[in-house]
User: What shape does this take?
Amino acid sequence: MASVINIGADNASDQFYRYKMPKLQARIEGRGNGIKTNVVNNVEVAKALERPPDYLVKFYGCELGAQTKYDKKSGTSIVNGAHDTSKLCELLESFIKKYVQCYSCGNPETVVKIRKDNIFLKCKACGAVSDVDMRHRLNTYILKNPPEDKISKAEKKVKKQEKEKGISAAIENNDKDEKKKKKKDKDGKKKKKDGDEEGSNEGSADADDDEDEEDEVVWMTDTSEEAAKARAQEQLTAAMASIVTQGNIEAEAAERRKREEKRLAEEAAAREAEEERKRAEEEAAAKEAAELAANPVLRLRKFIAAGNSAADVAAELKTVDVVGGHVGRMRVLYEALFGDLDEGVKLAAQVKARKDILTTAGGDTAMQLAQLVALEYLLGVATPARIKEVAMVLKVFYDEDIVEEALIVGWYGRVDAAKVLGVDPSTAAAVRAVAKPLVEWLQEAESEEESDEDE
Assistant: This one.
């Protein structure tokens, strides 16, 4: 059974709040393209809010940009896509503020009214009438599917009592008029009879009494010019007071409308800014994904920067699909590791620091030769400003056992070794010219070792 909570987030902590509703429950169903969210107790929530259930589902769809479906017979409420309960609860709170709570007193005792394609909320608690912001897409659905005018049992009972009271009052007034008429006729007959029996003096006295009574009536209604002016002034003062009061009420209503319009505008601006931020993030993510898919160097560089081990990097390198086979893949590795170094950073030091990746990815003879070709491409084509560092990097290769000595000498003798990567002969010759001192040193050292062995 769903737990019961207060209606409106502002009243969540009030344990004595009398307006309650069930806590929203949602369940994600299906998978793939058919995944959807089922708002399990949407009908119960809508009943507590006194709103049609399809209004709530349609509101979720408008806010989430998703299609919705509501089955009136079974009460099944579906929103396409996977949406967690917390997000739907936030949207429900927004619906309550816009279409349930009174904009004046905040109580959820409003009735949806429609007049001339305008929607407003009439509060049964304070009597205030609140205009709904007509910019929301749900309003179109509400205008096409207006709520049914339902009168509660209590309201029916009150109307019936008022009707019965009106009929009883009319009958009672009619009886009183009949009694007064009969009494008047009876008094008239009695006075006529008494007048015939009594003398003329008594008749004169009665006439004098009637005249006195008439004088009293004239005296109570002062018809003098001053009295007429006073009465006119009183009526004018009362009319002015009524106009001022009405003006104050209208001014307060206009001020409330102005505050509400400002609040709605601020909410719309904040919502638009949030949507713009999300769109920018999505566009940036999509752009980055496209760049990574099109550029294996960037993808591998990001993979290395994530802190993956040398073995993981070597395994990832094998999945790279580029021209040149293992030579092309090694070119991608060298560009990912050393292609974006700052100007003041020495390449030889970075090669030494990345020894674990280089030895793991290029352990056999073929991969070591591929490293020499990749280095030639890196310093001759990708970063030609560093071409003078060739000899120092080769010295690190030799000292750290990254590449065998014989392979370095063999690579030096093959000017077309990097042809597969598009290195032209002049660039290859320039790289070898810088590497020449180190290669000659290696050759001399090898000759000395052979001489020592012969002796």
Summary: The chain has a mean pLDDT of 84.
